[in-house]
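Subject: mismatched residue count in predicted assembly?

I count 986 residues in my input, but I want to confirm that the predicted structure covers every chain. Input:
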Amino acid sequence: MGLSPDRITVWLERDVLRIPVGDSLVGRIFDGKGEALDGLPSNFAPLSLPVNGAPINPIRRSSPDIYVETGISALDMMNTLVRGQKLPIFSGAGLPANELAVQIVEGANIPGSADPFLVVFAAMGITRREAQYFMEAFRKSGALSTGVFFLNLASDSVVERLLTPRLALTAAEYFAFNRGYNVLVVMTDMLAYCDALREVSAAREEVPGRRGYPGYMYSDLAELYERAGCVAGLPGSVTQIPIITMPDDDMTHPVVDLSGYITEGQITLDRSIQEKGIYPPIDVLPCLSRLMNKGIGKGKTFPQHRAMADQLYACYARAREVERMRLIVGDDGLTSLERTYLTFGGMFEKNFLAQGKEGRTLAASEKIAWKCLSVLPASELFKLPESYVAENMGREGGRS
Amino acid sequence: MRKTGVISGISGPVVTVKPRQPVYMFEVTRVGSSGLLGEVIRIQKGSVYVQVYEDTSGLAYGDEVVFEDDLLSVELGPGLLGGVFDGIGRPLRTLGEEGIFLPRGANLPTIGSETVYPYLPALSPGDEVNPGDVMGRVRENANFTASVMFPPGEAPGRVAWRADEGEYSPREAVIRLEDGREFSMVQRWRVRIPRPVSTRLPLEVPLLTGQRILDTLFPIPLGGAAVLPGGFGTGKTVTQQSLAKWCSADVIIYVGCGERGNEMTEVLEEFPELVDPGTGGPLMNRTVLVANTSNMPVAAREASIYLGMTLGEFYRDMGYNVAIMADSTSRWAEALREIGGRLEEMPGEEGYPAYLGSRLAQYYERAGRSRSLGSPGRIGSITVVNAVSPAGGDFSEPVTQASLRMSGAFWALDKGLAQQRHFPAINWRQSYTLYDEMLTPWFREALGEEWFSLKAFMKEVLEKEQSLLDLVQLVGRDGLSEGDKWTLFLAELYRVLFLQQNAFSATDASFPLPRQRDLLLVLKELNDLAEAFLARGGFFEQISEFPLRAELLRLRESEEEDLAGRGAEWCTNLSEKLASLEVMAG
Ligand SMILES: Nc1ncnc2c1ncn2[C@@H]1O[C@H](COP(=O)(O)OP(=O)(O)OP(=O)(O)O)[C@@H](O)[C@H]1O
Ligand SMILES: [Mg+2]
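Triage response: the counts match. Full output below for your records.
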């Protein structure tokens, strides 16, 4: 599919493109240039905003610090999502990123607040089948009638693909900062978005950078991702869950790499964990939520939350290391403590990670975490306060 | 005469102009009807290329451009400390009064005129005044007194009148010379040009960071330069923020160069609440924040590090020790690349312009320790700590390599360590400092000869651990000798207790140098006890059954001053327990 000169004209005009915003957007489905796809009348609203937006003045931001419960243990306990964060899912071809995103959207709630998130969905270059999956899921959860949807499918215009997230984020900013909603933006697939950027850049005969992507891709992606956040003194927020397919499961691919450099952490899906039959197949080791510390702890979740996450990380990292070593030296070469770590690793994967589609409260996740940790001797749990260990394992500890 | 031209082309942040009069390189321009600030970056065949410091959408072919016959400059004076500025020095606080989002084409002075500052003159009528001379002192905030200096580059003169002690607004004249020239507390400086000094001085005092691994293994001097490269999420920003909070400099310039908005907000929320150990005042009172985030205009990102450096030099000239943290050099280099690409320059390695290395060198050259111009004599320094964000986390890329050549310390962040949550994820095998030797006299003076043997011992243990781990891969842990098992265990203690440091723990975020020595001492004594025990026929298992890790952690976390004393006590205690084991066995 080539670019015709008139399409390039559309691109040059994007800078002045505006989208009408108002309550009339709610429950509507649009294409990548903002035209109605749902057979309803076109979108009219008194206020229209430039889709490129403008940078939020850092002085006006407030640090995201409100815990969002997703119902997923690997997130809530170890990589907490915080209201106003940009937290992408790094996925691989065939891994269930869409299912996980839907599960997050369905589960996401701010404890103590009755208002659900307003969902804004931007589909970029995904297949019709994937789009249908999302729309069906949104219909079931009721999000369809309360959210705003922008669909640019794989067969649609690449130039419009560059507009799609901008339309979505402009709508999101409107609902967040003009209307006070907590908005959850799902953007998928950022890889397709960047491929469109590359295609347009090549057509403009620009100097290509790494793997042919334009040198300004970092800035371009930042223009999108930085539109997440909270503003001091205003009630609303924009939280982003972008989905990025890693070509060849390669985390150093420029699209993945640059995204990682801009977003505030990542949730990484892993093929070998998927092969163990674990859903969601999250590899927690490369996962990170940079804003977690601000949203958890005393008065927010539970006092030992950070220590618990650290302890689970330390133990699971050790278990994985022992597993690697076992492949070389065999079971006999392992000490008894090392074998205990293997047991822990297995339990952690089967009980804590593998939760299926069922949502869990944080308290339930904590209980399961303890079930896994208590196979280890108490002396190994040195990241946790002793009183907390004693309370949950008894004075004796698990093993001895 | 007003020099003008018209726009003949636009490509992102680069605008092509047909000038009507001669213009020069790096001349400042005002572009279009909203007067967007720009700078000439190339002159070719009757066309001039201007990089514009703002979003260029809305500019049109034929729009008017004005050339201002000046180079990009910044105002220096009271009101900088505690302030937040974009890459070209516009005050973001003032801009923030106009709305959530940054407006385009705002034209605001760096230093506002609303505040008055207490001023004390240092000269009297009849005194001669030369560049760099201190004309007076101004109380910039409750914890900081700044010098008002006669601007470098001005011709000397004789004082005819000077303001009395009192409160003055920054732009009010505080001195008049016999030739009629008047000076206020504010001066301008061209950001791309280093401010002159009298003499450069050797580096001999460390910048103490409160970070165990840095102060002990990879120290840098006041006036030195360190690079901090690492893939995403490895801890560049957290480390730089820790340094900004706890390091022993008098003034911190924190440059957010193409990074996240929320990280700037974090500094703005935290620093006013934290106490500066040096002054007892809020940390924000010694800090200037330059915030040109990733979504702000890319040309202003390019300028931001020069702005930060110039601010730093201003305080250095007053005789202060300044530390500049720039996060991240890679985003600056990418701005250079993006603009180079728009000029259709011949790209060098990985698309970066061929002059990447020389530009970086010019920047790093501005670090150092020096005697300032003018009197009274003052010695100041600029220490640079720059983060680098290599594509794919691969340190062989051009920006990391060029930075490495320019700086004296390399603090390599390691993805593997970060994934294991070993923080700070500074790889102790890959990192280095070239400053060790010049700092030796200072450390010897401060901590005694023992310091060096304690350090050497830790390094030795960590070295041994590496080769033992290779062995374990072959035979398993059970196949090791008792001594080797102990060494592995001890190495882990060094890693967990000493190398790891939690930036978010109130008791661990900053760890003073003497305590670092005390902690090393405890670990060394522990080793001596254990080795003796094993030599007498004891088993490693017997030692490892003691909750050593937990007890040592508690010892480290304890807020009590006397770590050395309590450590010695703990060791005595342990040695008794070990002895009783032997009695039982015997
Ligand atoms: N010293 C530390 N103590 C505790 N946690 C740390 C420390 N250093 C880093 N971390 C953890 O690592 C995370 C990532 O650190 P940071 O944001 O500094 O990475 P970065 O290298 O700046 O990444 P990017 O290049 O994407 O900006 C932090 O959010 C924090 O959870
Ligand atoms: Mg960072």
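The domain at 17-295 of chain A is CATH 3.40.50.12240 (Rossmann fold). Marking this ticket as 'not a bug'.
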